Protein 1
Amino acid sequence: MISKLFENKLRQNFFRLALLSIITIFVWISFNIYRSINKSQIKFEKKKYLTPLTPDLDLDTMKIIKRRIKTKPEAWETLESELPEVLLIPEETSPSGDVKKEATSSGDL
């Protein structure tokens, strides 16, 4: 049988282990909650697009835009296609897509 002294020490050690485990779990959960609250969920690449636009107009930029070369609208119906009207397919193709080897008169392949 287990002596009373050993049983009391075992109970104290088990109590300490349980108490330290509970404290560790509490600290771990608290740290993760703190980190998830303070850490931004938006990545830097997307954060730069979220900066607010200024309502001020930059006159220099407006002048540069006005100086751009303006192109004429193109009539798309008048453009000619560069593709041929008839698509030529070679007659000597194999159904499997492999290249056929022709036998030479000397017999070597």
Protein 2
Amino acid sequence: MTRTKTLVLRQFEECSKELQEKILDKHRDIDSEFWGSNMDEFSDLYIRTLEEQGFMNPKIRYDLSCGQGSGASFTCNSIDLDALLKNVEIPHKQALINILKEYCEVKIEENASWSYMHKHSCLVSFNYPSSKDLPLLDRAVDKVIDIIEEKRLQACDTLYEQLENDYEYLESDECIKETLIANEYYFDEEGNIDYPND
């Protein structure tokens, strides 16, 4: 015996409050699912923020799993020392910056001993030719490198916080609703999306 069943479909705003809640829970990762592999919307902002601080051409690394090794860090092939140390008070600052620019390549590299993404998985790399004849200068250079490292760690913490906030927003009710309504999806009584080509 043949039987016909009518399937009732509704757009999000037409659904009951209970069904809307079910839909939101069921499709919590609709925006965040592919975020890790396609974060173009946010990448420019992260990169621009790091470059404004003086970390040039940064390559961002992150893991938001909240597990061991999760966090955010970055590498960069050069540092704008004038920008990075702009608001830092150091005796003979400009002279030290000039010395580093002339004799030293300062960059941020992966720490080969780590396979994680957190802030300690990278480090400030420099090749300053220390001199036994000028120990005070060596100490002054080391002090500047310590400040650069401190700035790097702060930048990693800020980056991780930004990444977490953006990821949490993508999984928020507000963002999910916006996506479901903008795409004019229809839903069945179980909260499943009825894709036209299914």
Protein 3
Amino acid sequence: MCAAGKAMVDDDGNYALPASSIILPEVYMRREREYQSTDRAFIRDEEIVVTLDCTAHTLRLQSNTVDHTIDIEEQHRTPQQQWVLNVNFSYGDFEVELV
């Protein structure tokens, strides 16, 4: 899993997600044992709220388990900048509903 070009999970399944972004550490760690390593932060049928704040220059990912905010790098903060949500998946069947 990557966000803003930085790995949140490396190839060995180790997370680089800061502890401050994990709302329910016990659930987060239990998922490591119960699901694939990449399903720790978000799991099937879980709602994930994605908020792009162009004024604060942040992207926020929220679920029942994780509340992670990514600062958008200064080089991407130009008045001409257009933002596009890009969601990429691999290894399985996924469904996304935008509301």
